[in-house]
């Protein structure tokens, strides 16, 4: 396994070189056409002197052009930074040398001026030309996109070539009995035939080797370039056949076949063009798949496996050919010629070479078989070890523990220095640039570390590529997140090999390994790790499924709990909001859950909070800001649907300290800014994304749930919410909305029920009050009237007048009671005082009027009235209603305090409000207990509830007073210790008038 790291390429340079290849193709076609026309014209004028010069020069030029193209491809492969090995460079460089050898033949012939007549010159020409074969053979062996052939396969091809040469030699020299050219002896002719046969055999050998490489080529496009190279070899064979036929059939004075030169021209140009095509294929493969070299991988091996039977005869065809050659030798020896025949001797020599090659092939095959058996045994042993190690992993269902154990096995059992596991977090979703990767790293020096990354990083492209590759850290270190880059720098390893983790065609992640010194061969170790990756893919898939089931079970349990709350007995909104926060934290794995409820003022106020520490949520509510509904609606186009709130920048760009996080905020995002109050609160807890899920009731925003996860300081992973979590939040908030709405409805029903009970109680109190307070004066009226009616004739005039006055007083008392009842009903209905009735009122004048009204009662009780009020106090009030309130309080002070005790009126500026005045009325009665004071201002409530109490009243006076003062923008309250003789003080606060 050899793969190259991914690196970006200059697209402009790639397009420029592609245009260069197209122009080279056009130039080659033009050159072939011009050469063909020239050769046709020359064939019509064979009697011209020097007619062999132009073909030889043309062959030399075209061979140099093809060599230049091959050298150009080699130079690009050497100079481009995305080519990280020298295989392509060396392959095309040797092809360059081979084409130069092809052109050197024409150069040699041009420098001789005369056709070669001696063996030495002829041998020199073929020797120079034969350099073409080893150079091209080495170039083919190094071609990119092919697997190196075994030595036995090369020997098989060589045996096949020798057998074909031997059979050809037999039929050409012994059977056919061709006539010799004039002026050439038999020995000279055999020498020429041997050289020609050697040349053609070299071409056949290269063509057979190329066919074998076609069998092992993994890439379809690379196979096409090899076909182009094969076409060039075919034309070279045709040229060699034409040249060889001329050498053995004609005298040196006869000109060469011009069509052989044209075949050489076409062959040289095709070979040169194939190198440019191969280079562009590699660049295109790099751009499309992220790799810059198309080497054989697992997929290519699988693709070729089905074709090997089709090409099997290319490798094994030497067997029947050897039998044929051996049979011809036997026939020749036994029946046809003498053994001392020179042609027969050459046949025997060639057959002996084939025999030695067969023995050599047997030795190679034996050694390869032994190596394969050892490798098989070792692989079985390694496979058994891998199965044993994976069996230990199968019991681990937690992904965190599984990743740590996988790394531990790679380091302790396989001897790697460092290891990395990259897994997809959203394994059940299509892989995209927004997918999150969970990266776990381990080494002998550093404990296991976990990271969570997202975006188009080098690791994402590595996983998406689904192929084995070697990642060079010095090239791609800058593309890693800062945490991973720091980890890599501490390891001091130049590269890491990655193997895809694939389960049933679905990519789960990648497994990376590295060590400073390898103890086994790369190929064997790659096979072991590949098998290990295939085995752990099953375990990881099971862990994913277990995690998914656990998450679904936890979410379902939370939904069941919410449903149970819906069917449970009545719960208060505060109580159910706390339960919703707790269940939401469990269901969505949220560190923070805040529950906001809507208020009538267009605000969202926090009602319950769940946080990672064990503090009471009631103690934390004050830390969460109140939100304005208008500001919330500005955050999203659909305020009635859950959405992801981007709180701050990515964690990777955040400072590493809390103070740094504070300074990272812009000025308009500081905690003092209301617009960003929630963002500032969340960023203080290192929260970078949050889900805002509204509670909707009847198409109206009723509340808000905020789910968030914090990133602890110094943590290597970011588990913040993303768009994929919104669906679960939507399902949860729908159930929570129903539960909270039910709680609110229950609270409303409970409040209404309490109000009904209170009204019922007030009705009973009213009936008691009416039956007592109304019956007493009514009985007096009825009694005096009956006395007058019965004894009118005998009653003195003065006594009759007294009875009538007392009956009149009873009627007036009844009228006052009924007036209070009607006044309370009217105040309840109106609930406010018209602004036009509010005037600037002097406190001093108002108290003087009250004192005049109560003067008769004060004189009768022999009381002292103290009024220490400065004339400077003015308030805004309804004069008539303020007089009514002061009369109610003053009358109560006289009724509920012993005769002879003083009554005090006072006024002062309020200490609570700078623009308010407090009017106070103090008596020296028995006081009011603190527990009775909150109910004192309710309707029909009386402290003297005894039916025999001498003090009568409707229980509406203080209630009416409270409502009137509140309607004027003030308030009324009482101060009393409930000690007899300590008395009570009623305070009235009203807005001050200048």
Characterization of this structure:
Residues 651-672 have a biased composition (Polar residues). This is histidine kinase. The chain is an alpha+beta fold and 994 residues long. It folds into 4 domains: 11-151 and 185-315, Rhopdopsin 7-helix transmembrane proteins, CATH 1.20.1070; 386-550, Beta-Lactamase (2-Layer Sandwich), CATH 3.30.450; 568-830, 2-Layer Sandwich (Beta-Lactamase); 831-991, Histidine kinase-like ATPase, C-terminal domain (Heat Shock Protein 90). Helices cover 58% and strands 12% of the residues. It has 28 helices and 19 strands. The strands form 4 sheets. Strands 3-2-1-6-5-4 form a 6-stranded antiparallel sheet. A 6-stranded antiparallel sheet has the order 9-8-7-12-11-10. Strand 11 and strand 12 form a beta hairpin. Helix 8 (220-249) runs antiparallel to helix 9 (258-289) and helix 26 packs parallel to helix 27 (879-895). The protein is rod-shaped. The model is unreliable at 1-8, 46-50, 112-118, 290-312, 615-619 and 651-675 (pLDDT under 50).
Radius of gyration: 54 Å
What integer is the average pLDDT? Answer: 75
The number of helical elements comes to: 28
Query: What is the first-to-last residue Cα distance?
Result: 96 Å
Please give the domain count: 4
Write the layout of secondary structure elements.
Layout: H1 11-43, H2 53-79, H3 87-112, H4 119-130, H5 132-141, H6 151-175, H7 186-216, H8 220-249, H9 258-289, H10 298-305, H11 312-316, H12 318-336, H13 342-393, H14 399-412, E1 418-424, E2 436-443, E3 449-454, H15 458-465, E4 469-472, H16 473-476, H17 482-491, E5 495-503, E6 506-514, H18 522-567, H19 573-588, E7 592-598, E8 603-610, H20 617-620, E9 627-628, H21 629-633, E10 643-646, H22 658-664, H23 677-684, E11 689-697, E12 700-708, H24 726-791, H25 797-830, E13 839-842, H26 843-861, E14 865-868, E15 874-877, H27 879-895, E16 903-909, E17 916-922, H28 957-967, E18 971-975, E19 985-991
Parallel strand pairs: 14-16
Antiparallel strand pairs: 1-2, 1-6, 2-3, 4-5, 5-6, 7-8, 7-12, 8-9, 10-11, 11-12, 13-15, 16-17, 17-19, 18-19
Catalytic activity: ATP + protein L-histidine = ADP + protein N-phospho-L-histidine
Biased composition (Polar residues): 651-672
Transmembrane segments: 20-41, 53-71, 91-108, 120-142, 154-172, 192-214, 226-246, 258-279, 317-338
């Amino acid at each position: 396994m050899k793969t190259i790291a991914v690196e970006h390429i200059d697209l402009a340079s790639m397009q420029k070189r592609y245009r260069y290849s197209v122009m080279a193709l056009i130039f080659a076609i033009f050159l072939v056409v011009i050469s063909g026309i020239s050769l046709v014209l020359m064939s019509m004028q064979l009697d011209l002197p020097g007619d062999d010069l132009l073909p030889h020069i043309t062959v030399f030029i075209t061979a140099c052009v093809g060599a230049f193209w091959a050298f150009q491809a080699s130079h690009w492969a050497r100079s481009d930074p995305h080519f990280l090995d020298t295989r392509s460079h060396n392959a095309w460089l040797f092809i360059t040398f081979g084409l130069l050898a092809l052109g050197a033949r024409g150069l040699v012939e041009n420098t001789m001026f005369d056709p070669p007549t001696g063996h030495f010159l002829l041998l020199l020409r073929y020797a120079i030309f034969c350099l073409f074969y080893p150079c091209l053979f080495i170039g083919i062996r190094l071609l990119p996109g092919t697997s190196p052939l075994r030595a036995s396969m090369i020997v098989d091809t060589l045996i096949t070539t020798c057998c074909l040469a031997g059979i050809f030699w037999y039929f050409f020299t012994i059977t056919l009995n061709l006539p010799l050219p004039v002026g050439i002896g038999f020995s000279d002719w055999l020498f020429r035939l041997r050289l020609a046969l050697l040349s053609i055999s070299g071409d056949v050998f290269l063509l057979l080797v190329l066919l074998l490489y076609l069998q092992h080529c993994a890439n379809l496009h690379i196979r096409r370039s090899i076909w182009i190279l094969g076409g060039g070899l075919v034309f070279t064979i045709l040229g060699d056949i034409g040249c060889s036929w001329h050498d053995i059939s004609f005298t040196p004075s006869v000109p060469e076949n011009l069509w052989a030169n044209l075949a050489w021209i076409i062959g040289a140009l095709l070979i040169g063009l194939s190198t440019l095509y191969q280079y562009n294929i590699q660049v295109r493969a790099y751009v499309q798949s992220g790799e810059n070299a198309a080497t054989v991988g697992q997929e290519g091996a699988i693709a070729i496996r089905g074709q090997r039977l089709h090409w099997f005869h290319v490798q094994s065809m030497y067997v029947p050919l050897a039998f044929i050659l051996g049979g011809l030798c036997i026939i020749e020896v036994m029946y046809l010629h003498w053994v001392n025949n020179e042609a027969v001797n050459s046949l025997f020599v060639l057959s002996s070479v084939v025999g030695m090659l067969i023995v050599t092939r047997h030795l190679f095959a034996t050694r390869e078989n032994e190596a394969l058996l050892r490798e098989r045994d070792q692989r079985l042993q390694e496979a058994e070890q891998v199965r044993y190690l994976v069996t230990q992993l199968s019991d681990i269902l937690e992904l965190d523990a599984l990743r740590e154990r996988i790394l531990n096995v790679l380091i302790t059992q396989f001897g790697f220095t460092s290891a990395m596991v990259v897994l997809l977090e959203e394994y059940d979703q299509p892989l995209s640039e927004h997918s999150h990767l969970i990266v776990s790293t381990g080494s002998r020096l550093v404990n296991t570390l976990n990271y969570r990354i997202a975006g188009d990083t080098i690791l994402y492209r590595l996983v998406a590529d689904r192929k084995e590759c070697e990642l060079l850290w010095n090239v791609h270190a800058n593309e890693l997140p800062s945490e991973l880059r720091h980890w890599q720098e501490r390891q001091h390893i130049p590269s890491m090999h990655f193997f895809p983790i694939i389960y049933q065609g679905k990519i789960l992640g990648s497994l990376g390994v590295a060590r400073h010194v390898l103890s086994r061969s790369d190929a064997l170790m790659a096979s072991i790790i590949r098998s290990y990756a295939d085995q752990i893919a099953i375990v990881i898939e099971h862990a994913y499924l277990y995690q998914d089931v656990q998450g679904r079970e936890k979410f379902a349990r939370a939904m069941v709990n919410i449903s149970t709350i819906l069917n449970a007995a009545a719960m208060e909104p505060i109580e159910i909001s706390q339960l919703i926060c707790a269940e939401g934290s469990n269901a969505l794995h949220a560190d923070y859950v805040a529950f906001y409820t809507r208020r009538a003022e267009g605000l969202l106020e926090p009602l319950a909070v769940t946080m990672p520490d064990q503090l009471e949520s009631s103690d934390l509510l004050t830390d969460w800001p109140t939100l304005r509904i208008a500001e919330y609606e500005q955050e999203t186009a659909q305020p009635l649907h859950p959405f992801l709130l981007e709180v701050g920048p990515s964690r990777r760009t955040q400072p590493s300290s809390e103070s740094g996080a504070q300074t990272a905020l812009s000025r308009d995002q500081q905690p003092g800014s209301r617009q960003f109050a929630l963002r500032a609160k969340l960023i203080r807890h290192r929260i970078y994304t949050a889900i805002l899920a509204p509670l909707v009731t009847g198409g109206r925003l009723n509340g808000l749930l905020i789910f968030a996860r914090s990133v602890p300081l110094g943590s290597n992973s970011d588990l913040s919410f993303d768009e994929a979590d919104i669906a679960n939040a939507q399902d949860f908030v729908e159930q929570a909305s129903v539960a909270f709405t039910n709680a609110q409805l229950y609270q409303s029903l409970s409040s209404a029920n309490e109000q009904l009970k209170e009204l019922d109680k007030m009705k009973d109190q009213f009936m008691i009050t009416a039956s007592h307070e109304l019956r007493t004066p009514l009985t007096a009226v009825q009694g005096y009237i009956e006395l007058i009616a019965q004894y009118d004739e005998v009653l003195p005039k003065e006594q009759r007048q007294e009875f009538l006055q007392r009956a009149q007083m009873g009627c007036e008392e009844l009228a006052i009671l009924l007036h209070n009842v009607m006044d309370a009903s009217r105040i309840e209905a109106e609930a406010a005082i018209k602004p036009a009735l509010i005037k600037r009122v002097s406190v001093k004048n108002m108290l003087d009027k009250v004192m005049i009204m109560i003067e008769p009662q004060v004189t009768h009780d022999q009381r002292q009235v103290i009024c220490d009020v400065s004339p400077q106090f003015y308030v805004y009030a309804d004069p008539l209603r303020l007089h009514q309130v002061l009369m109610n309080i003053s009358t109560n002070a006289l009724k509920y305090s012993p005769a002879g005790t003083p009554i005090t009126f006072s006024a002062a500026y309020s200490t609570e409000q700078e623009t308010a005045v407090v009017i106070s009325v103090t008596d020296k009665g028995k006081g009011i207990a603190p527990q009775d004071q909150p109910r004192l201002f309710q309707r029909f409530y009386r402290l003297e509830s005894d039916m025999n109490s001498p003090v009568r009243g409707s229980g509406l006076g203080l209630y009416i007073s409270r409502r009137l003062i509140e309607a004027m923008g003030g308030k009324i309250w009482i101060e009393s210790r409930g000690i007899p003789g300590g008395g009570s003080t009623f305070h009235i606060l009203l807005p001050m008038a200048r």
